[in-house]
Structure formats: C-alpha cells, structure tokens
Design goal:
Strand content: 15-25%
Number of strands: 17
Number of helices: 14
Shape: globular
Radius of gyration: 21 Å
Largest sheet: 9 strands, mixed
C-alpha cells in the first residue's frame, strides 16, 4: 500500500531565526506541527538562499530534530505506535552535509536509547555491556577499554564513587568504564567524562516526589559522551580522546552514605564532608576527573552532567551553560555549538565560589553549600578543584537534556563531536 505524503516546501519563516544556535530549538517546534503525518520536505529553495556558513548547522539541526520528534528508539507499549516519516528533497550537492548529519543522528539515537532505559532495565554492568557491544560493531582499531568493578574501585581508592553507590543492592553496585581512542598521538589528549547516575533518589537527602520523575535520565552525561565517541569513530576523525563513565545508583539502603560522612578523593589529597547526599553527581565526577588528570595525563578535561536544578531556573530548557578555565576553549566550544545548532552560554568561575565550599571544621571541603547560593557555579567549582591546573570545561545539561517534559535528548553530543573534530 502506497503511503500518501504531504508535500511541504521549507521556507525561512519556518525557521524564525538566522542564529545557528537556535536552529534545533525552532526545528523541533516545526516537526512537532507535522507529527502523526508522512511528509515530503522540499529543502532545495531554502538551501540555495541561505548563507553557506549556515548550511551545515541547519542540516545538522534538521536531521537531529526530525529524529527526536519522529523516531521512537524504545517502547514497551503493547500496542505499537504507527510509524510516520519524512522524506527530504535536496540537491546532491548537499549530500556530504546530510551524510555527516545522519551519522550524528544515528549516534544521538543510540544515546537516547540509553537515556530512555528505565531503572529496572539498566544498571552499571548492563550499560557497559550495551556500549561495548555497539562499539564492537564498528570494528575499530586504536581503541582500548578498562572496566573498574566495585571491588576494583574500592581497592584503587575511588572513595567518592563507591560512597555514592554503596547503598545499592549487589547487582547495581558502582562501576567505571574508561575508553581510550587514539588515532593521532600528536594531538593533545582530551578526556570527556559523563555523569552516569543510573537512578537518583537523592539518597538519605531524599528528593520530594515531584522531583523524582525523570531521575532515570541522570545518566544522560554518560550516554552523551558514548554517543560522541561513536560519531567520532563512524566519521574516522583524527583524535586523541578518552571517555570516562562513572556509573552508580544513588539508592537508599543499610549501607548508604549519610550527611556528616568524610571521604577522600581518588587523588588522596582532598577530604570531603558530605552535607547533602543529593549532591552526588559532583562526587563521582570528582573521582573520574582525578583519574583523568593523574592516570590518563589529560591536557583538557571536560565533564557533562545533569548536575543542578538551578540551571533550569536560570535558563529554562533552551541553553546549556558552560564553565571553562581557558577562554580560547570556550570560543572553540561556541564555534562547535554553532555548527551543531545548539545554544550555549559562558559562565564564570569566581574565587568566592570556592570559599563557599571551605566551610567544614574537619575536612577540606563540603560537597554542597546549603544556602544554594550560585548553586550551579559552586557545583562546577567543586569539580574544578580536582582538575586544577589542567584545562577544565564543565557543561550542566540538567535542563537542556529534555526537549519536552519526560522526553530526553542527547544535547551537546554534536557540539562535543565538532569540538574534537576541530582540534588542531
């Protein structure tokens, strides 16, 4: 049976902006208008008219937004949803842009699949198994992996990761996945670290019920850095990059960590007093950052995490805030975000933020400043303590990683891909 396609000619008014960082935002809105329909989308006239510098950002955003709205990557429904599609009409001269955009969308769909897996279908071991199986499909060389299970994390002194996850049952204990991909040893090492909290109850500092919804997406950072790696591999980029996914559940159990506990970081130099068990993401990232700094000899360390609710108050779901210790690297990220069609904003590190963490009578730092002043910046500052003096970048995607309520998206995956691609 032939499927009837509604023909649509894409025009400038359908985009509403010439700012490439806003392309994804408006294209998601565009596709939502046609959800539940099969469409033919003629792009030729639009692509011929726009500035050449906007072609790649537009096509990247177009393909990504289409899949977010039209493509179901996971469903447990008994009655399957009807599948609708969009056929893109364009001149062959634009094919190279569509090829790269499609490879990025494939990586995004895999990350989104990981994001959508519910708590009872995912734990640290299953995450690792799914990821390594997907990587093996690419038959890639110049790639090594290392897995720290719970016992190895304990043995090697990852006290912060094990503290967060020790209240979990045995099959959900913390692990850490490290992947090294090096096709150009001359390039400086960049390590991408993604927060991998499989589910976050808040621990003893239990979340209110209205904030528990969506906590299965608290591993989005880990899903996104894996997707970025898959895109890097698929497009055979020359790169020297490592990926770290610290994975844990923040559960409540008889062995859970509690407020007033004292732990030492992996670098063995820093003691932390726990003031809030719901500020767990920065703890597992701190140990991963210490490992990247001391064991991987990283030149730049980047963390991406659904870290603080404060970013939603400040930015809504439109903008991803970025903290950097190197101004030039922020410019590189901003240029990468332009190509990706994703909106970013530069945020400050300030000495006063660190002082807010120096309030313990018996440890070097507290893990959370209870007044919640400058919450997102204080969280970024906490992680930077363990990276210093290495170049450090932090992306807080707590709000921007959902394109609508209870609908996660692998935001910044394309930006990370272009950031790695454009390294000299």
């Amino acid at each position: 049976m032939d499927i009837k396609l509604k023909k649509i000619v894409f025009e400038q008014k359908d985009l509403s902006t010439t700012d490439p960082q806003l392309f994804s935002y408006y294209l998601i809105k565009f596709f939502k208008k046609y959800k539940g329909q099969n469409i033919n989308l003629d792009l030729n006239n639009f692509l011929r008219k726009i500035d050449k510098s906007l072609i790649a950002p537009f096509i990247n955003s177009l393909i990504s937004s289409y899949h977010l709205v039209f493509t179901s990557v996971l469903s447990y429904k008994t009655k399957k949803d009807q599948i609708y599609s969009c056929k893109f009409i364009y001149d062959k001269s634009f094919q190279k842009y569509f090829d790269e955009a499609n490879s990025l969308a494939t990586a995004e769909n895999f990350s989104r699949f990981l994001q959508l897996l519910p708590h009872n279908k995912l734990n640290a071991q299953k995450f690792i198994d799914i990821v390594l199986k997907e990587i093996k499909k690419n038959k890639v060389k110049n790639l090594t992996t290392k897995i720290f299970n719970f016992n190895e994390l304990q043995k090697n002194g990852f006290e912060l990761i094990t503290a967060v996850g020790k209240g979990s049952k045995n099959d959900s204990k913390p692990q850490m996945l490290v992947i090294n991909y090096n096709t150009d040893p001359k390039k400086k090492k960049i390590t991408l670290i993604g927060k991998g909290i499989i589910f976050d109850t808040g621990g003893i500092s239990l979340k209110p019920s209205q904030y528990m919804q969506g906590m299965q997406y608290d591993m989005s950072g880990a899903a996104i850095v894996i997707g970025a790696l898959l895109a890097i591999i698929k497009n055979k980029l020359k790169a020297n990059v490592s990926i770290i996914c610290p994975l844990a559940n923040n559960d409540i159990g008889e062995n859970s960590f509690v407020v007033s506990d004292i732990y030492h970081s992996y670098d063995k130099k820093t003691s932390i007093e726990i003031t809030n068990t719901d500020a767990e993401g920065r703890l597992i990232l701190a140990d991963a950052v210490s490992y990247a700094k001391n064991n991987l000899k990283s030149n730049t360390i980047l963390t991406i995490a659904t870290l603080t609710g404060a970013v939603e108050i400040a930015f809504g779901d439109v903008i991803t805030p970025i903290w950097t210790t190197n101004k030039e690297q922020y410019k590189q990220l901003e240029s990468s975000a332009n190509l990706a069609g994703e909106f970013v904003w530069n945020m400050p590190f300030h000495p006063e933020y660190k002082k807010l963490l120096e309030k313990s009578n018996i440890a070097d730092y507290i893990n959370s400043e209870l007044s919640r002043a400058a919450g997102s910046s204080v969280a970024a500052t906490f992680i930077n303590i363990f990276a210093d003096p290495i170049n450090f970048i932090h992306l807080d995607i707590a709000a921007s990683s959902e394109y609508e309520k209870n609908a996660p998206c692998p935001v910044m995956l394309k930006t990370l891909y272009y950031f790695i691609k454009n390294q000299k």
